[in-house]
Structure formats: C-alpha cells, structure tokens
Amino acid sequence: MSTLIVAEHDNADLKPATLNAVTAAGQLPGETHILIAGAGCDAAAAAAAKIAGVDKVLKADDAAYAHGLAENLAPLVVKLAAGYSHVISAATTFGKNVMPRAAALLDVQQISDISGVESVDTFVRPIYAGNALATVKSRDPIKVITVRTTAFDAVAPSGGSATVERVAAPPDSGLSAFVSREVSKSERPELTAAKIIVSGGRGMGSGENFTRVLEPLADSLGAAMGASRAAVDAGFVPNDWQVGQTGKIVAPDLYVAVGISGAIQHLAGMKDSRVIVAINKDEEAPIFQVADYGIVGDLFQIVPTLVDELKK
C-alpha cells in the first residue's frame, strides 16, 4: 500500500501546495512517491527528491507534459495508479483539472478537497461552504483524492533523499493543444502562499480605490492582494485575486478584509486564517463573526490612517 502524489510545478520549481499534499500522504500507511511530469523537468524532480518524507520520485519527461494539459497527464496517472492504493494532488486549479479526469478514466469516485485523514478509506471534507464537515468512506480500490492545502501544514522542502526513477510516457492524446498563456506578474507574494493578505470587497467602490487605498497598505505589510467575488464580478480587479469557495482557498497568518461583508462563499476561502482583521462600516456585517479584530467605520479614513501609523 503506497501513495502517489501528482505534483504541480513549472519544470524548474515545485509549487508550495505539493508540500501540503505530502503531509496528507504521510498520514497514510506505506511509501510516498511523487510524480513529476513535464518537459525538461530535471530541476523539479531533484527538488522533489529532497522533500522530507518522500521515498521515490517518478519522472516523466516528455514534450506532451510541457504545459500540464490534463488530457495528457490523466492517462499517465491512470497508467501508474495500478501500483498504488491512493493517488493525491493538491486541490489547486491544477489538481482540480487533472484529478477528476483521472478518476473518471479509473472508474472511481474522486474524494475532493479533504481536510482530514481518518483511516486508509475514510476522510473528512468540508461541505456547505465549509459550514459542515462530512466524513466519507470509500470502497473504491484506488482512492483518488484532492487535498485542501490550508488544512495540512507543509513538510520541510529539504532533508529527504529519495531516488529518482524515469517512467515511460504514453503518447500525446491529441485531444487538446497548448495555444498560449498569459501570466500576470507581480512583485507581491503569490496569493495562496502569502503570509499576509489584504483583500477588498464591494465596499471599495472601484478598481481605482484598490490602487489608491489598499495597495499602500499591502505594500506596508509586504502582503498579497485579494478580493471578494463581488469586487471581481464588478470588474474592480482581476479574477485571479478572488478569495472564496469559487476562488482561492487561503490561510495566511494575517488576513485583512476591507469593505467585505462576509458572504458565506468568501468566508469558506479564508476563515482558516490565523488572525482576521475586518474593516467595515456595517457593524452587523457577517465578517465580524469570524474576525479576531473588527473596526467599524469608513474604510477610506481608517486605511490611510493605518498606513500612516505603519510608516512611523
């Protein structure tokens, strides 16, 4: 009985979410192996081999995997899955893209977004936007699982000495082709890996106010920028800033919610944050029910004052 982790990487570096998936895999019996599928991915495979708790790295180096297309990755996962009791990936955009297709090809039900491991066949996962927890038992011979990264601490990225084994790659499926990728670049930390996040909601009023009011606060704190779905839908900020059930799940050390009322779908994406600070003019706003510190007042006065204090 062993576990295979499908790693997310850019052929050079592993994405931090993989370290959380390793922690989840470590709670299952047997060895933990990591699949690195990419093109020119020697550096990513070497990094995976150093992760504490990893016993073996499987490297599939082929042009078909250069861009992480699920249509090509899923058949490889299915081919390798026969030797494992569990196949795991982080519940990121990557994992949510590849793993359901692999589960369908294996004719098993995926166990999504788990937050706890009870036993080899029993897992805990949030439902109803995180307001309840379901304990799920699977009878499938191979458990295909995605892991809520905020529920598991990351393992150390060093200290391991796993072997690297090359595996043969199935041919390109021909079902999809990579056309182009537009990547937004920012000097700020990546949202899902940031220690501090400053998020704005509908109360910001406009995208210009995000730039004028929130960016100075984020710069002062060295924080990533986030937003509620309402702010994204209004066109204030890009959709890759969205935090929530339909956006990104985050759990930073500090989450500052500015002008966010606290809809259930937003709370589902950030309520595991270690410290939550809410700034809102509505003292009845649901966000105050989960906040550790709440400030009731006009954000356009409070935030600049806070920035001035941080500069002292």
Protein traits:
single chain; alpha/beta; Rossmann fold; seven-stranded parallel sheet; 8 helices; 24% strand
- CATH fold name of the largest domain, please? Rossmann fold
Strand ordering within the main sheet: 5-9-4-1-2-3-10
**Can you name the CATH architecture of the largest domain?**
3-Layer(aba) Sandwich
Global geometry? globular
Which H/E pattern describes the elements?
A: EHEHEHEHEEEEEEEHEHEHEEH
Structural class of the helices, strands and pairings? Answer: alpha/beta
Q: What is the C-level CATH assignment of the largest domain? A: Alpha Beta
In the residues, how many domains can be counted? 2
State mean pLDDT (0 to 100 scale). Answer: 94
Euclidean distance between termini CA atoms: 57 Å
Question: In which range does the helix fraction lie?
Answer: 25-40%
pLDDT < 50 stretches:
none
CATH homologous superfamily name of the largest domain?
A: HUPs
Biggest sheet overview: 7 strands, parallel
Total count of helical runs of at least 4 residues: 8
Percent of residues in beta strands: 15-25%
Radius of gyration: 21 Å
Number of strands: 15
How do the strands and helices of this protein lay out in sequence?
Layout: E1 3-6, H1 17-25, E2 32-38, H2 42-49, E3 56-61, H3 70-81, E4 86-90, H4 93-106, E5 110-114, E6 116-117, E7 122-127, E8 132-137, E9 143-147, E10 163-166, E11 196-200, H5 207-221, E12 224-227, H6 229-233, E13 254-258, H7 264-270, E14 275-280, E15 293-296, H8 299-311
Parallel strand pairs: 1-2, 1-4, 2-3, 3-10, 4-9, 5-9, 11-12, 11-13, 13-14, 14-15
Antiparallel strand pairs: 6-7, 7-8
Helix pairs in contact: 3-4, 5-8
